[in-house]
UniProtKB/TrEMBL annotation:
InterPro entries: Homeodomain-like_sf, HTH_RpiR, RpiR-like, RpiR-like_SIS, SIS_dom, SIS_dom_sf, WH-like_DNA-bd_sf. It comes from the Bacteria. CDD domains: SIS_RpiR. This is MurR/RpiR family transcriptional regulator. Keywords: DNA-binding, Transcription, Transcription regulation. Gene3D superfamilies: Glucose-6-phosphate isomerase like protein, domain 1, Winged helix-like DNA-binding domain superfamily/Winged helix DNA-binding domain.
Length: 297
């Protein structure tokens, strides 16, 4: 299959990545949060104190202290020393990081948004496994039906997916966001189906049920999440990370929308003949009934 990312990001800067192997099964819920934060912060974690890390994540200092031994280090200091061996941080990089932290005081809103959006998109692309991405596209293209679980702020993305993918002739159902209503849909999901889950911030109870039931019925799950370390990695089939900003920032939906649009384009490309035929039929219907159902201006 052709690679659908037909562009070059010229503003990609050389970065620093923690690049650790995390044994998620051995981590507690709070330890997973710490690991996720470290992965997202990259080299900036070197400028944190243990107390600042605890305050940022709103957990105790004792919890943070125990974390280092759990991952094989005596303390935070030895963990930092190991990271510094991988990457020597120069004075100009330190200055650059400081300037980035205060630049929002100098920029207009649109300039600041453009700046952080670039960073979020680059980070999202860096984390994509393109082989898995193409497999997920094929899976959604040939399955019997796609069910989408989209709680809270991700609801708009689910509506976008349903609207666009239905045009290609795919059967899409938006799952109830919460509560017992989920059972009414759950009973109809088959092994030939795909469940697409938006999992931002944390795994909710409904997502947990959907992933557990997948093991019983053998349907496939695709997860779009803003967590690098979480229970999704253990339980989902295809997990894709999207950067929505730091914990203390406004959580943007630009990078998630970008990734969703790429899924849509990828499926349209995979089902090219079917997609074009359906879009041509849509155009014909619009022409046929343009007097009775004029386009709203």
């Amino acid at each position: 299959m052709k690679n659908i990312f037909l562009f070059v990001i010229t503003w990609l800067q050389e970065g620093f990545f923690v690049d650790m192997e995390w044994d998620v099964k051995k981590l507690t819920a709070n330890q997973k949060r710490i690991a996720d934060f470290i992965e997202k912060m990259g080299k900036q974690i070197l400028y944190y104190s243990e107390t600042e890390l605890a305050e940022t994540l709103e957990i105790s200092n004792a919890t943070v202290s125990r974390f280092w031994k759990q991952i094989g280090y005596d303390n935070f200091k030895s963990f930092k020393a190991a990271l510094k061996e991988k990457e020597q941080i120069s004075p100009d990089n330190k200055l650059k990081n400081s300037l980035l932290q205060i630049q929002d005081q100098e920029l207009q809103i649109h300039e600041h948004l453009l700046s952080i959006t670039k960073s979020q998109l680059v980070n999202t692309l860096q984390e994509i496994d393109y082989e898995k991405f193409n497999k997920a596209i094929r899976l959604m293209s040939i399955c019997r039906k796609i069910y989408i679980h989209a709680p809270s702020s991700s609801e708009g993305l689910s509506i976008l997916m349903k609207h666009r993918l239905a045009r290609f002739g795919l059967e899409i159902e938006l799952l109830p966001k919460s509560g017992h209503e989920l059972f009414e849909s759950l009973m109809h999901i088959r092994k030939e189906d795909v469940v697409f889950i938006f999992g931002f911030v944390a795994m909710n109870r409904e997502a947990s049920v959907l992933l557990d039931y997948a093991k019983r019925v053998n349907y496939k799950t695709i997860i779009l999440t803003d967590l690098l370390i979480s229970d999704f990695q253990e339980n989902g089939d295809y997990i894709f990370y999207t950067n929505r900003g730091e914990l203390w920032e406004f959580h943007s939906m630009i990078a998630p929308t970008f990734l969703v649009e790429n899924f849509i384009l990828g499926i349209g490309q995979y089902l090219e003949k079917q997609s074009l035929e359906n879009l041509e039929k849509l155009s014909e219907l619009r022409k046929l009934y343009k007097e009775q159902l004029p386009k709203l201006k």
